Amino acid sequence: MIGGGLAGLAAGVALADSGWRVRLFEQRPFLGGRATSYVLPDGEHVDNCQHVTLGCCTNLEDFYRRVGSAGKIKFFDRLSFLDPQGRRGEMKAGTLFAPFHFTGSFASFAPLTLRDKLSIARAMLNIIRHAGNPPDLREDISMIEWLHRRGQTQRAIDRFWRVILVSALDEELGRTDARFGVDVFWKAFLSSSTGYRMGVPSVPLSNLYDGCKAEIERRGGEVVLRTPVRGLKLESGQLAGVRFDDNREESADAYIFAIPHTALAELLPESLKQSDTSLAHLDKIKTSPITGVHLWFDRLVMDEPFVTLLDTTTQWIFNKTLLYQDADEPSQAVLPSLPAQAGEVRSPSSASRGQYLQLVISASYDLLEKPRQEIIDLCLAEVRHALPKARDAQLLKATVIKEAAATFSPEPGVDRWRPAQATQISGLYLAGDWTQTGWPATMEGAVRSGYLAAEALLRASGTPRAILQPDLPPGGFIQMCVGNSRPARG
Ligand SMILES: Cc1cc2nc3c(=O)[nH]c(=O)nc-3n(C[C@H](O)[C@H](O)[C@H](O)COP(=O)(O)OP(=O)(O)OC[C@H]3O[C@@H](n4cnc5c(N)ncnc54)[C@H](O)[C@@H]3O)c2cc1C
């Protein structure tokens, strides 16, 4: 296993559970890849960025259960939205069956007018009528084109569709394949009344992977950190091993590369790309950025666990102090320490009795070139506008973490460049959120890819086993209309 992000960990744990001796090599000093946490020089333990899951992420839930971390995720059934005028909206399932469970909260959603809501309702009915698969999704159109075809008002686009989809897919609507956008609403908001429930870790992200090493080692395997794979060894055109620093080599019965597609494109020899043309187009998969802004105040400034801001650069505010409450902080001695890209820290002291907020800005192209202090000033002004208690509070310190290649960009047609987990090359398998999973770049997509890679390997070795978990079953009226099955997408 090359790569200790969620894809590699999911494949490793599933294969260990199937009796394989797994050796996992990770280049960094800690596990978790793009969904991890580390200690800054001042001793503060931060996530590289807030990560959330949803009720419809059935494979991620299965993975957390396997590694003993399910209890470290808190689920919330109320999503809160706040506009600059102080009007609030909520999404919360009421007593009606799916797909009408949001009718009550949507009717009283103050940041939208009746006209906006009627246009949104029409588009939702179109998704429902086609069981999440409207025919024009096959045309590789962008989400914005799909919305324009359905006569959405500008406010409905800005304050509803864009808010939910840019956070979920990390891309602007004009660069998002409508298939991914519609799928978010079908899976999370329409087909069942629990798919939208938001799961937020109550511990720093790296704590979620504590059980992985033990699972792999229990079956005789090992997890080796600080060990980047530098190259592939070929013999008679076949994959015969991997190369590390100092020309050290290791060989195995099978190899799963669970590294980002950009890293794989650099490692793969040209001859392998020619043997399997699905490996020749990895450079066509683009990436998009996410920026996290961490603010420490000298007092409590926010009461709720999280809120979504409308019409601002800041998209989400997470109340980390509240979310971590009741959770046991791990001892600092076992925490992974800072990688190079963490942002600046302005004061070494920790806000022990104050409050720690984490802001998230997805598809943050405009922030990539901005100086960190400018980003802090901009976000701080927005936080103070949204949260009255923050106006008198002192900001003790702040950090900006820019992830320039946070996810693959879900551009129209991107699926044709995403390779399957089983390749044409004997013994070579792939995993990663960017492989062919049907899902966008998410933790769920990464775990699915790992499970699919493990299934492919087990099939090829003559011991097939089903690992992938089914989607949430459709609920309420949806179940009556479409049953438990839904047309598959290719
Ligand atoms: C800022 C940010 C916010 C996000 N928010 C969310 C969210 O809220 N919800 C959600 O579901 N998803 C979110 N995501 C996406 C999610 O983090 C990713 O989809 C997922 O973690 C990808 O996992 P992966 O295993 O496919 O890849 P990675 O996590 O990138 O793992 C690849 C691993 O391979 C290692 N590696 C690379 N090259 C080598 C080599 N040569 N040798 C050995 N090891 C190597 C890397 O160090 C890394 O550990 C977010 C991502 C970012 C960056």
Care to describe what's here?
- Helix 1 runs parallel beside helix 8 (210-218), helix 1 packs parallel to helix 13 (443-460) and helix 5 crosses helix 7 (178-190).
- It contains 14 helices and 19 strands.
- The longest helix is centred in the C-terminal third of the chain and has 18 residues, at 443-460.
- Residues 329-335 and 339-351 have low confidence and may be disordered.
- The two termini are 28 Å apart.
- The strands form six sheets. It has a seven-stranded mixed beta sheet. Strands 4-8-5 form a three-stranded antiparallel beta sheet, with no helix packed on it.
- The chain is of the alpha+beta class and 490 residues long.
- Residues 2-8, 25-28, 33-35, 48-49, 51-53, 228-229, 258-260, 263, 290, 292, 403, 406-407, 432-433, 441-446 line the site of flavin-adenine dinucleotide (FAD).
Question: For the terminal residues, how far apart are their CA atoms?
Answer: 28 Å
The counted number of beta strands is 19
- The residue-averaged pLDDT reads 93
Structural class: alpha+beta
Layout of helices and strands:
Blueprint: H1 6-17, E1 23-25, E2 37-39, E3 45-47, E4 53-54, H2 58-66, E5 73-76, E6 78-82, E7 88-92, H3 103-107, H4 114-129, H5 143-149, H6 154-169, H7 178-190, E8 198-201, H8 210-218, E9 222-224, E10 231-235, E11 238-243, E12 249-250, E13 255-257, H9 261-267, H10 270-275, E14 287-297, E15 306-309, E16 316-319, H11 320-324, E17 355-362, H12 372-386, E18 395-408, E19 428-430, H13 443-460, H14 476-482
Parallel strand pairs: 1-9, 6-15, 13-19
Antiparallel strand pairs: 2-3, 4-8, 5-8, 6-7, 10-11, 11-12, 14-17, 14-18, 15-16, 16-17
Helix pairs in contact: 1-8, 1-13, 2-13, 5-7
Bound molecules: flavin-adenine dinucleotide.
Flavin-adenine dinucleotide binds at residues 2-8, 25-28, 33-35, 48-49, 51-53, 228-229, 258-260, 263, 290, 292, 403, 406-407, 432-433, 441-446.
